[in-house]
Amino acid sequence: MKDLADFHHPITELFLQPKTKADWDQYRLSREQIDFFHENGFLAGIKLLDARQIEALKAALDEVMDPRHPLHQLFHEFHSNESGDPNKVLFHSLGHWRIAEAFHDVIWNPAFRMVTSQLLGDRAVRFWHDQLFCKPAHHGGNVAWHQDYSYWTRTVEMQHLTCWCGLDDATEENGCLQYVPGSHRWGLLEKPALAGEMDGLMAMMSEEQKASFKPVPIPLKAGHAAFHHPLLVHGSFANFSPRSRKAFVLNVFADGTVSDSDEPLLAGVPVISKGQKMGGKFFPLIFDPEELKV
C-alpha cells in the first residue's frame, strides 16, 4: 500500500496523454469561452470524463468513503457528515488522490490540465488539493454561500482556480452548484462555515453586493465540469430528491504561488515556510506550457 502522492505522473491507462500539439489542441478553449470566464467568473459545461472514467471514479469513491480503508490516515480531512445533522448529510474529504489510483490520475487528465492553464493565463499549473462532495438522496446537506479563497489565504498571491466535476447528473432538484455571476469582482469576504447556514455569508456583504446577489443554477451532466474563480461566490442547496449527487473538486494554482504561513498548509503536510514557493511532493507541477511544443 503506497502513498500515491509520491508519483507525479499517471500510474494507470485511465487518461491517455497527448503526444503531439494536435493532441493537445482538441482540449483547447475558444477565445469566447475564456472571455466568458473572465467576465462572469466561471465557465461550465466542459466535458472531462467518458462513461468508463466515470465508473472508475465512482468505484474508487465507494472505496475511499469507507472510514476503515487501510490508508485512511492519508486524508488531510475526512467528514462523513460535515454538517453534523443526520437530516442534512454532506460527505466531504481532502486527500483521496493519495489513496485511490483513479483519483490520483484524474489530476493528470489532459482535458483538465489544458483548461486550467488557459484560464490562469497560459501559465504553468500546480496541484493544490482535491475534495469530494457527496449528497445522498433524500437527506443531502447544503454547501453555504462562500468564496474558495477565503479558506486559502495561507497561500499568496491569489492565482488559484477550482474545477467541480459531477459523477452523477447534477440538477436543481439534487443540489447542483449555484454561482453568483460577477461576484469575483467583489473582493475578499469573510469565510462562513462551509456546511453551516446557507445564507451565513449575507451578513458579511455590503448592501450593494446584496442587491447584485443573483445566483444562477449550474446543472451538469455526469462527467462535465465547471471552473470558477477563487473569489466567485457559490454554494449549493440541500438534496431532498431520490437521486444522489456525487462530485469531486480539483483545486490548482499558478506556479510561483508561495506559502503565507509557518503552519502546515494541509493536515499531514510538512511546513513550507512563509515566503517559500509551493512545490514538492504534495503540490506537484501538473502542466507546463512547454508540453505544447512537442
Automatic annotation (TrEMBL):
InterPro entries: Phytyl_CoA_dOase-like (IPR008775). Keywords: Dioxygenase, Oxidoreductase. The keyword Transmembrane helix does not apply. Its cofactor is Fe(2+). One of its GO terms (molecular function) is dioxygenase activity. Gene3D superfamilies: q2cbj1_9rhob like domain. The keyword Oxidoreductase applies. It comes from the Bacteria. This is Phytanoyl-CoA dioxygenase family protein. It comes from Algoriphagus aestuariicola.
